[in-house]
Amino acid sequence: MLLMAASMTVFLAGDTSAQDGGPESAPVGSYFEVEAVNPGLEGLAPGANLETPQACVEHFISASRRDDWRRAAAALDFRLLGKIDETRAAKLAERFFFVLNQELWIDWSRLPDRPDGMISGQSLGKPNPMSGQARRSIELGTISLEDRDVPISVHRVMPTNGEAQWLFSPHTIDNVGAMWDIHGPSWLAQQMPSWARQRWQLRIPIWQWLGGLLSLILAPVIGYLVAKLIQRWIIKRLEGPAVELCERLLWPTAASVTTLIIWLMMDWILGLPGEVATVIDPLTMILFVGMVVWLAMRATTFFVQQVLETKIRDHHEEESASRKRLLTQVAVARHVVLLVLVLLGISVILVQLDVFRTLGVTMLTSAGALAVVLSIAGRAVLGNLIAGLQVALAQPFRIGDTVYVEGNWGNIEDLTYVDVIVRTWDERRLVFPVGYFISNWFENWSKKDPYLIKASYLKVDYGADVEAIREKFLELVKNDEEWVGEPDTPEVLVTEFGDETMTLRLACGGSNPSTAWSLACRVREQLMRWLQQAEDGSYLPRRRVSLREVPGHASFRAGEETEGSTEA
Questions:
Q1: For the residues of 500-565, what is the DSSP string, one character each?
Q2: Percentage of the chain modeled with pLDDT above 90
Q3: Among 108, 215, 252, 256, which is disulfide-ready with 265 (CB 3.0 to 4.6 Å)?
Q4: Mind listing the pLDDT tens digit for each residue in 90-130?
Q5: Highest mean pLDDT out of 54-63, 211-220, 534-543
Q6: Sign of the C-alpha dihedral, residues 455, 456, 462, 465?
Q7: Regarding predicted confidence, which is higher, 563 or 121?
Q8: The pTM is what?
């Protein structure tokens, strides 16, 4: 059921006015001139107040709620139905009220209470073009049939010998039979006893209250049972990843089935009155679409993870470069697909609620302001989303790459909508905005080739034998099982002279950053043990202190020998 808010549309002179007036009327000024109003039915409601559009609708609804169908029929124009008696008029009024109550929500704030039907005020921040103009026809809304929408309108008629009054238009009443056939009481409603059809709170029949409560209780139970049955059926026929998929989709499936049952119960089976359905139907529909989107997102995430686990195993192997590229593209694609699913769900909701038609003008007029608000409030989020797409296309890094950023080195572990997670060598997680890697520099140690040269810096005494240290370092590296061999050539270079020490750069390569790191750590440890023993540790840094005789000092006067120097 598509429900729409009443849209007070003015029908001016021309084809539309002629339609509402009927074949025996002619539009004159602000009313339709007729010979007589419902001839033969003058005694339905003598003295009824039908002077304004609001009074006409109020008269019909108040009389209908008292089940005074004869009096309610006085607000209807039966001219297109020919000559009818009071019994048939009352029956049509009863059926029309049922359909009106079920399918239409009337916006009373926009229904004029003036005989001339004038309106005042502004529309969408601009003066209403019909403000200050008398009207002879006002549309309250539309009720859908199988092939078209029927406008529900009131119009102002002026009999030859009488006063002007507002009535539901003859074309509206002429379609009561067709609307009753489609929107009349369901078979279930007709089987209810008289006490159950009595209207209670919010003018909802008792049986609908009970049915709604029962559906809210049973729907979750049925939804869970259906989800379990589907899970068991799939598990019996499939194995492996399908079992895990069923476990992950159990609750989203149960929630989707539950909301679908509630939606169908409220919309199709119970048939709530229009004023209540205007609120309940959109809520249940939104919940159902949300659960389906949740289900689709869970399934998408699962399939992506399966691809990642089966296709991408070792990010540090040389031959895994293409896999890491695929991993990054799949990770970005997953987030794009999830975002598309959310936007698709929102679009379905907007279309079903008819928001594009009722709020289209508002959205267009406020598009500029909305763009400014989004550009300010969502600048960081949108910037990171765009940066994520740049990463997927340019790929300055890939998931699994080893990077050195902000004084830390680690592997790119995950890429989300707005951030990049770096797992450091000591199992810390550094979270950076995606935009950081677009606007700042960083080191990618495995961009082209995972092979990496790791350098260590050693300070030794000036008396150290650099050549002996070089030979020992080469020996230690080449004897390590993780040394890659040729073409890597370990080297020792003197890179700096200090006041008391000189600095040696010891470099060796590893097949990947992790191997290079562990190799360098082991070699440093072994080299330090050798330095402590070589030449009684004389290669290690030492501080020299010179002592000289000071005239007048006590030791000098005692004749003690103080010349010379000591080393520490």
A1: SEEEEEEEEEESSHHHHHHHHHHHHHHHHHHHHHGGGGTTS---EEE----TT-HHHHTT----SE
A2: 25
A3: 215
A4: 999 999 998 888 788 787 877 888 888 887 654 444 455 55
A5: 54-63
A6: negative
A7: 121
A8: 0.53
Question: The sheet that has 501-510: what strands, in order across it?
Answer: 452-461, 501-510, 491-497
Sign of CA dihedral 194, 200, 203, 208: negative
Amino acid at 469: I
CB–CB of 65/46 below 8 Å? no
Catalogue the E-assigned strands of 334-415. 402-405, 408-415
Q: Is 468 exposed, middle or buried (0-12, 13-18, 19+ CB in 10 A)?
A: middle
User: Residue 46: which pLDDT band, with cuts at 50, 70 and 90?
Assistant: confident
Tokens of 112: 């004029």
Closest Cα to residue 456, out of 519, 524, 525? 524
Return phi, psi of residue 444, to 5°. -110, 105
Dihedral of the CA atoms 85, 90, 91, 94 (nearest 10)? 160
Give pLDDT tens digits for 332-361. Answer: 777 778 878 888 888 887 776 654 444 444
SS3 assignment, position 148: coil
Assigned token pair, 212: 């709604």
Residue 445: burial class (beta carbons within 10 Å; 0-12, 13-18, 19+): buried
For residues 430 and 405, the answer to whether their CB atoms sit within 8 Å is yes
pLDDT at residue 461, as a whole number = 92
- The token pair at 151 is 């406008």
Cβ within 8 Å of residue 18, ≥6 positions away: 27
Distance of alpha carbon 22 from alpha carbon 27, whole angstroms: 10
Q: How far apart are the first and last CA of the chain?
A: 95
Residue 236 has a pLDDT of: 80
Mean pLDDT of 435-446: 86
Instruction: Supply the DSSP symbol for 201.
Output: G
What does the pLDDT read at residue 53?
93
Cβ(43)–Cβ(55) below 8 Å:
no
Query: What phi and psi values does residue 559 have, to the nearest 5 degrees?
Result: 80, 20
Q: What is the mean pLDDT of residues 153-166?
A: 90
For 244, residues 6+ apart whose C-beta sits below 8 A from its C-beta are: 302
Inform me whether the pLDDT recorded for 199 exceeds 50.
yes
Mark residue 67 as left, alpha or beta (left: phi above 0; alpha: psi -120 to 50; beta: remaining). left
Phi, psi (rounded to 5 degrees) for 255: -65, -40
User: What average pLDDT is seen over the chain?
Assistant: 78
User: What is the token pair recorded at 68?
Assistant: 């005074």
More confident: 364 or 442 = 442
Alpha-carbon distance 277 to 283, whole Å? 9
Q: What is the dihedral of CA 110, 116, 121, 126, to 10 degrees?
A: 100
